[in-house]
Amino acid sequence: MKRYANNPLLSPQRMVGMSIEGFTTSALLSPGIARINDAHKLFFIVQDRARLRHVARAIGSDGFRFDSEPRTLNLTRPDQVSPEAPPQELRVSPLEGEIYLMVRYHEGGRSLLAIYREETEELCGVCEGDIGVLFPRRVDGRFLLLKRLGNDLVLTRSKDLGDWEEPRPVLTGRPGYWDERLAPGPHPLPTEHGWLLLYQGAWIQEGSVPITAAGCALLDATDPTHVLERSRANLLEPRESYELAGFQPNSVQVSGWLVTDPKGRKSGRRGVLIYYAAAGMHLCLATSGLEALHSAAAGIVQPRGLM
Q1: pLDDT per position as a tens digit, 134-178
Q2: How would you class 305 by CB atoms within 10 Å of its CB: exposed for 0-12, middle for 13-18, buried for 19 or more?
Q3: Given Cys at both, which of 12, 42, 52, 252 links 25, Cβ 3.0 to 4.6 Å?
Q4: pTM (2 decimals)?
Q5: What domain range includes position 99?
């Protein structure tokens, strides 16, 4: 992965205003993106200096430049949490011509994942548990949801986004490695090799705060609980000043990506834009190639410019 030269992409200092009177941006979190026609929609969580949080959307034309005055979304909380419960994590999935938002709420020691249709902002599903992301297509008529359970990643299925099957294990944390504790990144990408998965891994250096980095894996196309490949080393770890200092220091939390040339398969030039939150404050961008990520998952080569 290669960092975008103009990082941070968005930061609290660059946010001119919000659609809420008196809102002063303090932090930006959990970026996710979807492309509809020629519009690039960037979604993220915005926090103000009173620690109030909202899900916001900024519009761009190329995946690099976005509005500095995003619009906040009016998302109704599920009945299981209070109307004031703040969003903690966000993921975005394009699915069947629509954009779905997965928002994690945490209140009273309980985590709940709410699923919304972006166009109408309606609540269309709820799942017990932690951070989660929908696959961008159904398999055997069922929605697939990858979510965190403890330190691991599991898969659950549903016909209606309401009733979920018993979760099955996918990835487990690796003690002694960079990914002792796991969290899902952006939605898995369907490729000719299987489902390409980008995920977050965290570890604790002795006497330090948790360090969060990014890695990838390849899941079987028909049975995503079967892991075909998994990167041994991380592909992006905190190095830059904007990744080292902030509300969540020493963290690069990948949560969104976009294939820039979906039709470039024959040329082998399918680029990927990867969006991440840096140190719990800034929204940043890294770039890679789809084939390079496949190779990294397989451990065939260390990606050039490993960061």
Answers
A1: 999 999 999 999 999 998 999 999 999 999 999 999 999 999 999
A2: exposed
A3: 12
A4: 0.92
A5: 2-298
